[in-house]
Amino acid sequence: MHAIVIGAGIIGLSTAWNLRRRGVRVSVVDPDPATGASHAAAGMLAPAAEVVWGQSPLYPLMRASADLYPDFAADLAAESGRDLGYSSAETFVCAGDRADLASLRELTELQRSAGFDVSLIAGSAARNLEPSLAPGVSGCVTIPGDHSIDPRRVTAALIDVLGVDIVRARVSRLLSGQGRTVGVELTDGTTISADQVIVAAGGACNEIAGVPTLPLREVWGEVIRLRAPESLAPLLTHTIRGLVNARPVYIVARPDGELVLGATIREDGNSGINAGGVHRLLRDAERIIPAILDCEITDITTRARPGSPDDVPIIGRTDPGCLVATGFFRHGILLAPLGSRLTADLACGSESSWAPAGTLAAVGPERFDAQRPPGCTQHAQRTEPIQQPAGSHP
Ligand SMILES: Cc1cc2nc3c(=O)[nH]c(=O)nc-3n(C[C@H](O)[C@H](O)[C@H](O)COP(=O)(O)OP(=O)(O)OC[C@H]3O[C@@H](n4cnc5c(N)ncnc54)[C@H](O)[C@@H]3O)c2cc1C
């Protein structure tokens, strides 16, 4: 079998790696590998801290993927010979004031009812464990199971292990014949045929002609990378999340000393860095970790998260030759082991009995069919059958 994966973000790359480990010949096509949302991501692996009201279908997926992470990371580190910046330091979720503490208490109940191990401790107890916390922090939820990884290192490792199987080009459309996808056409007119095409182009899936229209939305976010001066290093030994006047903020402390402060959430369609957003992040982070203002900013990045209407990924078959794997929204780094394994199972026709019950139904693109306007079919944008021109390469 030859598979083409469109998109070299963490989802496309990890799916390609998974397929290759099963003996599938795989080509990944992307003009700028690993420069999309995966380049911005902080890399929190936070199935408990990401529990929010109204998203119960996500909880078992996040937990299952977090369980797969240690093996996923160990195998990738061993095969690539790279350090992935994996940290099992526990996460602290801190309340900026008493009102935020009341919200945290309620959220903690929800996290407990979803089966996660979380404990509420006093601000003074948290400061004993993490001395950089501000005196105003009024309480803190400790989450031992929420960890982190460096997504830039993960995608670099995946690119290394996939090597020459990455084609630096943009896909303009799917090729179809006899009712199924049979390959892709690149913007320079080159065609590549395949038995299976996996569309993992993040928020840009709908720009590829022939891909059934997916209900994707772009949720932009700024993230700031910083480094503490030597006199303060290490500034933090935990991942710190905060609630400040009901606004969430986080600082991920990497093993190499990098601090990642994020992230704004906006749906204004602007791809530039928003000054107000950066200002708010620094101001809110200062309320939790005052010394953040003594750090050096090394990078500010803004990217769009590929969101779905229910914030659950969209993974499934759209025709006998095509699958989609997108819509990972705020959780694509955490969900990569689960999403890539599930997508590879579907491509190979394998069972996914390892996944939590109901996973395929929860992520399947057909869950949106009832919401389509009359006359709009799932395959509305499918193009006419294309003859394979002579000279097309595999
Ligand atoms: C600020 C921010 C912070 C985040 N923090 C976290 C976090 O802490 N934890 C977490 O789990 N998740 C986090 N996320 C979410 C996570 O980054 C995304 O869910 C994940 O990166 C999505 O991966 P992807 O591979 O689907 O998309 P992308 O990484 O966007 O990759 C898509 C790829 O497709 C390529 N492409 C597009 N069109 C075409 C085409 N026509 N032909 C070929 N290639 C194409 C692009 O070049 C790109 O490389 C964060 C996101 C943001 C923006």
Task: Explain what the structure shows.
There is one protein chain. With about 400 residues, this protein is α/β, with parallel strands linked by helices. It is built from nine helices and 19 strands. Helix 3 crosses helix 8. About 50% of the residues are buried. Bound molecules: flavin-adenine dinucleotide. Flavin-adenine dinucleotide (FAD) binds next to helix 1, helix 2, strand 13, strand 17 and helix 8.
Structural topology:
Elements: E1 2-6, H1 10-21, E2 25-29, H2 37-40, E3 44-45, H3 58-80, E4 91-95, H4 98-113, E5 119-122, H5 123-129, E6 139-143, E7 147-148, H6 151-162, E8 166-167, E9 171-177, E10 180-186, E11 191-193, E12 196-199, E13 217-227, E14 239-244, E15 247-253, E16 258-262, H7 275-288, E17 296-307, E18 314-319, E19 322-326, H8 332-348, H9 359-363
Parallel strand pairs: 1-2, 1-12, 2-8, 4-14, 12-19
Antiparallel strand pairs: 3-7, 4-6, 5-6, 9-10, 10-11, 13-16, 13-17, 14-15, 15-16, 18-19
The structure holds flavin-adenine dinucleotide (FAD).
How would you characterize the largest beta sheet? Answer: 8 strands, mixed
- Tell me the name of the CATH homologous superfamily of the largest domain: FAD/NAD(P)-binding domain
Regions with pLDDT < 50 over 5+ consecutive residues? 375-394
The level 1 CATH classification of the largest domain is Alpha Beta
Q: State which percent range the strand residues make up.
A: 25-35%
What count of domains describes the coordinates?
2
C-alpha-based Rg, rounded:
21 Å
The helical percent reads 25-40%
CATH architecture label of the largest domain:
3-Layer(bba) Sandwich
Number of helices: 9
Average pLDDT rating: 93
Order of helices and strands: EHEHEHEHEHEEHEEEEEEEEEHEEEHH
Q: Output the structural class.
A: alpha/beta
- How does the overall form come out from the CA principal axes? globular
Assign the CATH topology of the largest domain.
Answer: FAD/NAD(P)-binding domain
Number of DSSP E strands: 19
